[in-house]
Write a structure and sequence with these properties.
- This protein is mostly helical.
- The longest helix has 20 residues.
- The radius of gyration is 22 Å and the shape is globular.
- The chain starts with 5 loop residues before the first helix and ends in an 11-residue tail after the last helix.
- The chain binds adenosine-5'-triphosphate (ATP) and magnesium ion.
- The site of adenosine-5'-triphosphate (ATP) has 13 residues, from strand 3, helix 13 and strand 5.
Length: 275
């Protein structure tokens, strides 16, 4: 992947003009989705629609990850109902919940109906939580395993579920009632012998946050421990989701912007020395 130049941009316009699928494909293979997203907003509406027609739903989903909520709404509006739902199927379910939360109720209901049942159910579960809490930030596409699994079985299981999981970096161990009893990192797993039992190698002192914890507190805890994700539990200590570091970065940026706005709202007279 390399950053996009002026030449690529002209090339892209030509491909879109001619709806040249092979040329277009060859060009976007070279691009990171961040660059594609920047390109998207340089295009006129007609070209945007053409670009969205040529992109597959999973590619649009990657592009969406690079956009803010307002921009995501614009993209969604430019898609037909069916393709929009396919794009949502491929996005992390916490991002989908955030996006749908911004739409009219009638529209989000329609999109949820059009989505795959499994994905839609996961998103519906997330829509209940206030957006500035751990529950509002979390995804429920995490990796959950049992303590009686061997390392070998866990690796095999990962091969099956990894494509759909949001992060496979930490594996969370629960009991049959879904209570969180341990955690291990992918590294912890890989350095063990195939026959070893998860229960013997997991960390039992798991740091977790309650589902109703304020997002800024969640951000502080995650940065304190330097984890890439934090598990979220309900009042029965059951695992309900994970908050990943990329969502925490967004919280920190949001917080910094609020602080800046407060600073600039200070009137000059407030700064006059009272003495
Ligand atoms: P790397 O080389 O990528 O850092 P690592 O195994 O050290 O690999 P870290 O992300 O640094 O991975 O995690 C450090 C340790 O913290 C791992 O052993 C992991 O199992 C553990 N861990 C992860 N999440 C939690 C958590 N929520 N509570 C307690 N321990 C955790
Ligand atoms: Mg480490």
């Amino acid at each position: 992947h390399q950053p996009i130049g002026q030449k690529d941009f002209k090339q892209l316009l030509t491909y879109l003009q001619n709806m040249d699928q092979p040329g277009f494909r060859a060009l976007i293979q070279k691009l990171h989705s961040y660059d594609l997203a920047r390109l998207f907003f340089q295009l006129s509406n007609i070209y945007r629609r053409r670009l969205l027609t040529l992109l597959r739903p999973e590619e649009i989903a990657l592009l969406m990850e690079e956009l803010d909520l307002q921009e995501q709404k614009e993209v969604l509006a430019a898609l037909g109902q069916k393709k929009a739902a396919q794009v949502l199927d491929h996005m992390p379910n916490d991002d989908v919940a955030d996006l749908l939360g911004e739409l009219e109720w009638s529209q989000s209901t329609l999109l949820l109906k059009e989505m795959k049942t499994v994905e839609a159910d996961q998103v519906r579960a997330l829509l209940h939580y206030p957006e500035d809490t751990a529950g509002g930030l979390m995804t429920n596409a995490y990796v959950q395993i049992f303590s009686h699994y061997t390392v070998e079985k866990t690796l095999q299981y990962l091969r099956e579920i990894a494509p759909a999981a949001e992060t496979i970096y930490y594996l969370y161990v629960t009991d049959v009632r879904h209570r969180l009893i341990g955690v291990l990192s992918l590294r912890d797993l890989l350095i063990r012998e195939p026959h070893e039992k998860i229960g013997r190698i997991m960390n039992e002192r798991v740091i977790s946050v309650p589902v109703d914890m304020d997002q800024e507190e969640v951000a502080r805890i995650l940065s304190r421990y330097d984890f890439l994700a934090l598990p979220v539990v309900d009042h029965n200590k059951k695992l309900v989701g994970i908050v990943t570091v990329d969502d925490i970065i967004d919280v920190l940026i949001e917080e910094a912007q609020e602080d800046l706005e407060q600073l600039s709202a200070v009137q000059p007279t407030d700064l006059v020395d009272p003495f």
